Amino acid sequence: MPFFGELFVSEILKKPVLDPKGEELGRVRDIVLVKGELFPKVSALIIEKKKRHFSLLWSDLNIFNKRIISSKTYGDNLHTYEFSEKDLLIARDIFDKQIVDANGVKVVRVNDVKLEGYNSEAILVAVDVGMRGIMRRLGFERSGEDMMKIFKRRLPYNLISWNYIQPLEPKLTKISLTVPRQMVSELHPADIAEIISQVSRKEGASFFKGLDVETAAEALSELQPDVQAAIITGMDTDKAADIIEEMPPDEAADVLSDLPVDKAKEILEHIEKEEAEDIQELLSHEEDTAGGLMTNDFISYHPDISVREAIEKFRKYAEDVETVYYIYLIDAEEKLLGVVSLRELLLAPLDATLSDIMETKLKTVTPDADEVEVAEIISKYNLVAIPVIDAEGFILGIVTIDDVIDRILPPAAKRKRRKV
Amino acid sequence: MRLWKRIAIFLSIMGPGIITANIDNDASGITTYSVAGARFGYSLLWTLIPTTVALVVIQEMVARMGAVTGKGLSDLIRENYGVKATFYMMTVLFIANFGTTVANFAGWAASMEILGLSKYLMVPVGALFIWILVVKGSYRFVERILLFACLLYFGYVLSGFMAKPDWSKVIYSTFVPQMKWEPEFFMLSMAIIGTTITPWMQFYLQSSIAEKGIKKEEYKASRLDVLIGCSITDIISFFIIVTCATTLFAQGIRINEASEAALALRPLAGNYAFLIFAVSLANAALLGAIIVPLATSYYICEAMGWERGVNKSFKEAPQFMGIYTFMIVIASLVIMIPEAPLVFLMVLSSVLNGLLLPFVLVYAISLVNNKSLMGDYVNPKIYNIISWGTVGVVLMLTIFFLMTVFIPLSAKYG
Known about the structure:
The complex is a heterodimer. Chain A is α+β, with helices and mostly antiparallel strands. Chain A has helices at residues 9-12, 90-94, 131-138, 141-150, 170-175, 178-186, 189-198, 201-209, 213-221, 225-233, 237-246, 249-257, 261-269, 273-283, 290-293, 307-317, 342-347, 354-357, 371-380, 401-408; strands at 6-8, 16-18, 24-34, 41-49, 52-57, 61-64, 69-71, 79-80, 88-89, 98-101, 106-109, 112-118, 121-128, 159-161, 165-167, 299-301, 326-330, 336-341, 385-389, 395-400. In chain A, the strands form six sheets. In chain A, strands 2, 3, 4, 5, 8 and 9 form a six-stranded antiparallel β-sheet that branches. In chain A, a hairpin with a 2-residue loop joins strand 4 and strand 5 (52-57). Chain A is elongated. Chain A starts with 5 loop residues before the first strand and ends in a 12-residue tail after the last helix. By secondary structure, chain B is mainly alpha-helical. In chain B, 81% of the residues lie in helices and 0% in strands. The mean pLDDT of chain B is 83. The interface between A and B is medium-sized, with 28 and 35 residues.
């Protein structure tokens, strides 16, 4: 049991490793990690002597703490070590890299790594992302602490437990646990989108690939168009199609319209026929018009049905519909006759027909109306959504207030990533 | 049809190279070119050609890294060379860029003074303007202002033509190298290289390429962007030298500052030439005063892993906002102190920039040759020869430059 207590990796890098007679075997160059039971554990030290590298297995260590590292074996028994991309090395692969703090929902940089003794293994419990870690790496943690004392403050520890870490690089992902994956799926899609927009495209894409379809669909629609396109282009068509299918048709159309034509076609072919038709219809409109903003996912009933029937229908089918606050009343040919709000529906006597309670003086827009005009009408009449109708009065879709707001005030992840 | 497609691709990619190269001609750059033209006439013009080649090679390398890795230069240095190298580099970068910010505020103050506005009014106004622009403004707005401000640089081309130079002489001096064996001649040629190739530009360019999400497939268009940007910046330097050479040098007028050049131009080239020169200087200085502090705070926070972003509040991103605000406030205060050691600060800043540049270039070259980062996009052999050659020349000039700074100092005090 060579290891008790805890230490930071930067404290032992370049420290000498001694053999049983006290001769120096070399200096600690790096530490190899492997998958452990719950946390990754140390499998070997890589030591450097005269520019040559050897690996010293964890089981061959005698004492391992921040002051003394000694081995049970002599130099002749050491194996030479070749650096390989397959191994996970703390200093090479974890130090200084960006990771996602799933608890604080932000991207941070690893300044140091904390190991702890557990069941005669050394396990990686946390990473240091704070000022203290930087100071320790620079070699003036002590003086930093003394300086803070003058101001009667303490240098805070800023550690993130391995549980809460979501690695960005595929190499780290292999060794991480299933726990953080679930944690990330529990984050708000808008937060996920912001994380993706803060890291490089490659890292963002690999992070995205780990999400489940539902979360991925929601996060995708929060991203900037060129990031969306880059991520979808980099995925295989089946997975991309699954995600696109999960999105509301208007947002799916937005994503597809930014893709190369061939790729968009290929994805559309993999999507269920009905859904694909909806999306294709939306794709034919200019992006900054009512037609480009609208979705064809809305609730429409025949005006002759009773309020009771309407409520039953609503309970049965409305779950997958994005915007449910208005029920549009259309005839057999899809001509728009009137609207009933969800509130009016719930307050109306159950035996009344919808045509009794519907509002017929509707505010509508044409598909080529400018987005600003649409926003003005929605704002003026305090609407949640507005129907888009063609010249003959047929309903084509609705523009919802959240889509309009997104155009006027883009969410953080949709704005440019950095401001220089 | 295919040609149109290519042009469309280029238009969507262009920007970072051109903006970076233009901001490179900030107040200290303009001062250097004006002084060079007034002191040696056309005879330093030829140095612009090798400088442009070196600038293109280096910027191309950095831009390629941005496109292939999708990361900024300070990111890559931190991830590949660790905290220590990054920390010391960022510390020096901070001090050097603080000096550059002071130089830009000085340029702004001087150009306002010659336009008849008091610097005690205009420096705080300028500082407040750029602070609010970034802290409260949106990025799109800032970018539009930047692109428009880049156009204002063409004022120098205009004033160059207004000076009515003897074009046959100008062209001869541009393509036929000439030497004058005077220490000042060497000082100024070093200053021209030093002010054209600066450390912070490399960080700025790579981040903006990575930022724009330019992919390696689109990289060819980016190369063109860099090439055009570098050419434009040196064409503008060329016209500044030509203007001052034609008017001031011919009359034997010596100057130490860009604003003096503008003043001296008035009787020689007319009121408009004076006005254009002064307004362009004000524009360049203000642009530099926006970008340099902003860029500095970004790279430092990026490398150190601190929260950053213009959208963030002081509480969310204390280091970022702190560095940015500190640089602007202290730099503008320094300008307003009567008898402040401005010259000393600027010399210090150029010494630090000179010291930092070889390091930045060596890191950049070794990163760009790292196969696990760059894949098939590592430097071709010929690029390595040119870029190491550039590092060699820059290193030599830096040593020369340090000698010219320290030898007179030690002669004075030693």
